[in-house]
Predict the structure.
Amino acid sequence: MSPLLPIFQRKLIPWAQEGLAQRLIVARSVLKKSSLPSDVELTRMKISGKRVIVRNRRIYGNQRVYYALWPEAELHELDVPKLICVLNGGITDFQVGKYGITCNEGHFILVPSRTPMPLSFAEHFSPKLVDNGEEEGVLLGINLYRDSLHCIIHTRRRREKINEHDMNFLIRHPQAVQTFKLFTEEILSDETADITISGHLLSAFFLSMSREIAAGHQLNPGFQSRESTSGPSSVQEIRDYIKAHLYEGLTIEKVAREMYMSPSKFTQYLRQESGKTFVEILTECRVSEAKFLLKETRWSIAIISNQLGFKSSTYFGAFFLRHMGVSPGVYRLESQNAKV
């Protein structure tokens, strides 16, 4: 059995169903004690040193994760939102932005994308006594990517150095991704966001994740890091980037910039390495993702169209028909019948 399953079933789902008012900490740019659970402590902290944009594109799977570093302060900014669940023990003066947060077991910390946070939990992790007489602390970090979720279990025992990535799992489930995205959008909309709606969304997300984990729909280990410093390492890296950002309505200028190349050099590179143009590769990625979403999700054609970067579902329908010979609706129906 996956170690994630009891975490979701015994802790996260019951905690979310009890309500978020006394559990959720949203790491906004401006925090007030009155907006936090009553047992959470808040302190003002400074960010020292220079902020450095990450240029070597540390990538997990198909998406850039690290956006910027504060080397002197030992902080980093992730380019994705992160939910930190304190499962056992607590954390002390955990810096998010210009604040230090101290909280105990049972709290959730939502860290919006590009919010400074520590490179390591080690100095902030507070273990507590458990049944076997040892002092142990456990956190679960959940990163939201465009088409997947990355879960990392952090464990620390009093006399042991923390293992930052002792267990990491990747779950690619469109409904869970969309539910978590809706949760973050609702809770981050403004300070008067409906906590009840947010609680229901988080509960639904945890339930969806539990179902997928129980069915064995996970990769372990999950994403593996790789780095490069000048240009893409392969055409596959370009394809991975395109698939991860289709919803942005990509242009050759934007993708070339992300690969640290000029548009002309980027075009030449694609021709040499693949024999194809940017438009041809973009089209292949759109068709591939469209087929996957039509087969594996219940999303409406309009939602899929938006996710693939089309201006309208009508344009998407014409595009799909031109390249697949059938409409999106017919393709979905045929795929469903083939499964029966």
